[in-house]
Amino acid sequence: MLTYSATNSYGARTQGKALCAKVDDKWVRDGHAENLAILKLTADKLKASNDCHQAGGKSKECAGDSVALRLSAISLTPVDIDMLKKEAATELGF
What is the C-alpha separation between 63 and 70, in angstroms, rounded? Predict the structure, then answer.
């Protein structure tokens, strides 16, 4: 994993992480590996929430710190998977 820091033309700094792979003797960002990591964390969060519900937990405690899971519990609608994936990507630093 590569951790980077950059400054744009306006002087604002940004930091992030990237998974890299060597392709033809060059290092490139491995978007597939990043997506897999995001999907795994998303699935882990959904499983933990589901396990909590099945054990009799309340929606708020089963949502943990996830806004997507809390909104789903409040509105009684399916979880916004795209929002949950964005939360996972942010948590991973991508």
Answer: 5
Q: Residues 5, 15: contact at Cβ < 8 Å? A: yes
Range of the domain at 34: 2-92
Number of domains composing the chain: 1
Amino acid letter for position 41: L
pLDDT in the model for residue 73: 87
* pTM confidence score: 0.82
- Helix, strand, or coil here: 14? strand
Alpha-carbon distances, residue 43 vs 8, 18, 24, 38, 46 (angstroms):
34, 20, 33, 9, 5
Contact 92, 38 (CB under 8 A): yes
